[in-house]
Specification:
With 552 residues, the chain is α+β, with helices and mostly antiparallel strands. The chain has four domains: 69 residues, 2-Layer Sandwich (Phenylalanyl-tRNA Synthetase, Chain B, domain 1), CATH 3.30.56; 189 residues, Phenylalanyl-trna Synthetase, Chain B, domain 3 (Phenylalanyl-tRNA Synthetase, Chain B, domain 3, 3-Layer(bba) Sandwich), CATH 3.50.40.10; 67 residues, 2-Layer Sandwich (Phenylalanyl-tRNA Synthetase, Chain B, domain 1), CATH 3.30.56; 185 residues, 2-Layer Sandwich (BirA Bifunctional Protein, domain 2). The chain contains 15 helices and 28 strands.
Length: 552
Amino acid sequence: MPKIEVSRQDLFKLSRMKDPGDAELANLLTLVKGEIDYSLDDELKIELNDTNRPDLWCVEGVARALRCSEAGPFNHLADLPEPAGEIHVDEKLENVRPFVAAFTACGFGPDQKQLNALINVQEKLAASFGRNRKTAAIGFYRLDEISFPVKYRAVTPETSFIPLGEEREMTLSEILADTETGRMYAHLVEKADLWPLLEDASGSILSFPPVINSQTTGRVSPGDSRLFCEVTGTDWETVQLTAAILACNLQDRGASIAPVLVKYPASMHSEVQTPVIFRDSMTATTDEIRKVLGIDISLDSAREALLRMDYASVEIEGDTLTGILPPYRRDGIHAVDMIEDIAISIGLESFEPLLPEQFTIGHSAPVEELVDAVRTVLIGAGCEEILRPALSSWRKIKEITRTPTDPVMIANPMTEEYGVVRNTLLPGLLDVESTSAHASYPHRIFESGEILISGDDGVCRTEIYLAGLVCGNKADFGDVHSILGSICYSRDLDLSLRSVEDERFISGRCATVIINGRASGVIGEFHPAVLTEWGIARPASGFEINIDSLKE
């Protein structure tokens, strides 16, 4: 879960309240699903138990929630002036890093602590929400040194400028090779023939996004009260929401926000004024609110509760309540999300707890009892159990392990590492083995867990599988076959094999597992190419079966 470090003094200055002490602050932080991790003098570390609110990953977001709970909505980014300038986007960036959003913020001259807070939220959003700058990266500049229109264009790696923190002019290629920041983010651009560059109308280079700002305009100092902020990335919504969050943060600190008009070529996107003012809405009836909350609440009371959560507007029509989220939030998907905000605003401690109406005794599901029995046999056979997350990556499952069937992909995942739901347990076993070369051989590991299968009809179903792996100098087909045979013998089941070709395994050393006459899984010696991709230096064999096939 996200953790943020904030200045206690800054937090309560922004929230416009006196410091109530840690005990009361702990209660107030329920408004943001947060809790105090540690508190020492002016340093305060807050852990947030929610990952779908990037607007809260900063002192401004937490302070905003505390302030609005007392004073009501702030009406962020309303009545913005005419655009302060334009950004012209090069069509050659379409397949490189196509999207950009920007605004100006004037009238707020940060001191060193406030500037540190601005840098912290910049880094937090780019690292977590922006997937380490891939989908969104942020830059701040001194506005007075920029001439509009700004050009967001594609350039060759030989283009040069003085990067932030350096004293000499360097080509983009040199920046990637010779600077720490360049080496860290080189993978985001180096595969493209042309690279993105921000340049103002006078030819002064602002930055090489998403890598580094320029030394001339890209260094903001305490007291700079006229700022230009830009966000570039590969995902349009992430870029726009990041810009909206930053604009709201600076507005909360007293800055006047002016939008910037982004002009895309006709082949890429329409002309757009940024930051985009999101106005996501949710609707719920009186009956839905009362059913979910379990209390009798009027629509007027629900409306007041939502306004204390900084909803941009809340309208009542008949027995229906419609709430519009502020522009820095895009987490409202269902009416229940709005009803949860009502509950948080009212205060979870105000709900009267109820005992269950029926008393029941819990027990293990039959499948768990089956897994426990199989686990005992495997441990007796000298195997160690591992536990892996249900989410994995396309690369590990398809490209490295060569799994024949495609896993179910997650729409807009936070990271590529967890971009699919696993449809096999074998990559997890190989992943563990790839980091276990320090342990004495042979290695005998297994896992039982859920996988997600996508059927021919497009319907997904969850199944529980069992997989095992043996690795060592002499590990072969017979090692895993004997383990599988022990399991079937203990369950009084017939085990047989049928030859099959599977590119995960060596040809002729792979078979379909037949248990009581039914095809139940696969067994074989892993192909050397698969082991090489995983960095495993010794032979390995494995099996994987549906746990239901072991029912007696």
